[in-house]
């Protein structure tokens, strides 16, 4: 009974609002704003799934991701709305991917997840640019958290972005004990690891230098009249004179007696 009464009242209010708007429009007066409006259609948990017409499709045609230049011309409100549209799309794609894996089916167009993620990363980049510009204009600083170069538990230098903690560093005995007992300062295992790591980096650099040296030797052998200045500019870490005296390039650069 109450539901029927509510429907009748709603019908009467809607009809009165429609007539008043029609009368005001005929008289040339501004229309009265609508007192009742409806929202978009809701599908409950089905919002996490794709449209039913795409469930059995093997190829779904989609567009590209949003570019930075396209996002920079949009307002903050549009970026906020677009972010939630992409977030909803990403949740739907993750749900469909999981469902396809459960049913041992091929997930169509998995690159859609990458496109959505790229668009969301571009939105974050644009928002960060605007925040930096605003803080520089107001305070002369970027407004972002400071980044320091610290030594981690493995003895390697890394970038650390400062953040707030509820417990100060000197009071955090758990962190201090693990850092000093197993960290770079007193641990022989970490020192050994750091020594082997430096040796690995040196070997990688040495092999790259040898590859460039051998490549320059082959270039000198095949093209004896090439411009040496450009060759030095292209390979600054290679000793060109030493490469000329090597056996692989000796046929064209014999020493003069």
Describe what you observe in this structure.
With 257 residues, the chain is mainly alpha-helical. It is 55% helix and 4% strand. It has a two-stranded antiparallel ribbon with strand order 1-2. Helix 3 runs antiparallel to helix 4. The longest helix is centred in the last third of the chain and has 35 residues, at 188-222. The radius of gyration is 34 Å and the shape is extended. The model is unreliable at 13-32 (pLDDT under 50).
Task: Please supply descriptive tags for the structure shown above.
257 residues; mainly alpha; two-stranded antiparallel ribbon; 8 helices; 55% helix
A few lines on this structure:
This protein is mainly alpha-helical. It has 8 helices and 2 strands, in the order ααααββαααα.
Write the layout of secondary structure elements.
Elements: H1 2-26, H2 68-72, H3 76-102, H4 111-138, E1 147-151, E2 157-161, H5 173-182, H6 188-222, H7 228-234, H8 240-244
- Residue-averaged pLDDT, rounded? 78
Radius of gyration: 34 Å
Strand content: under 5%
Q: Count every helix, treating DSSP H or I runs of 4 or more residues as helices.
A: 8
Which strands sit side by side, in order, in the main sheet? 1-2
Overall structural class, as computed from helix and strand content, comes to: mainly alpha
Tell me roughly what share of residues is in helical segments: 55-70%
- How far is the first residue's CA from the last residue's CA? 118 Å
Q: What is the makeup of the main sheet?
A: 2 strands, antiparallel
Order of helices and strands: HHHHEEHHHH
Which overall shape is indicated by the principal axes computed on the Cα atoms? extended
Please provide the count of β strands.
Answer: 2
- Ranges where pLDDT stays below 50 over 5 or more residues in a row are 13-32
């Amino acid at each position: 009974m109450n539901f029927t009464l509510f429907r009748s009242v709603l019908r009467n209010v809607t009809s009165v609002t429609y007539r008043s708007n029609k009368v005001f429009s005929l008289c040339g007066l501004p229309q009265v704003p609508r007192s009742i409006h409806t929202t978009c259609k809701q599908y409950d948990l089905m919002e996490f799934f794709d449209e039913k017409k795409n469930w059995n499709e093997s190829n779904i045609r989609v567009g590209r991701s949003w570019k930075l230049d396209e996002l920079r011309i949009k307002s903050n409100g549009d970026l906020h709305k677009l972010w939630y549209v992409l977030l909803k799309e990403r949740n739907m794609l993750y749900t469909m991917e999981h469902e396809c894996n459960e049913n041992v089916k091929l997930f169509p167009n998995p690159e859609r997840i990458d496109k959505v993620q790229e668009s969301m990363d571009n939105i974050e980049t644009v928002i960060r640019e605007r925040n930096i510009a605003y803080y520089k204009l107001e305070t002369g600083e970027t407004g972002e958290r400071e980044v320091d170069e610290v030594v981690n538990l493995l003895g390697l230098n890394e970038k650390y972005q400062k953040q707030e903690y509820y417990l100060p560093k000197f009071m955090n005995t758990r962190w201090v004990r693990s850092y000093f007992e197993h960290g770079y300062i007193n641990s022989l295992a970490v020192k050994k690891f750091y020594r082997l790591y430096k040796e690995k980096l040196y070997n990688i650099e040495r092999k790259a230098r040898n590859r460039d040296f051998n490549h320059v030797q082959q270039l000198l052998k095949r093209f004896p009249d090439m411009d040496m200045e450009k060759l030095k500019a292209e390979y600054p870490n290679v000793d060109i004179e030493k490469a000329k005296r090597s056996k692989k390039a000796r046929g064209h650069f014999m020493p003069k007696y």
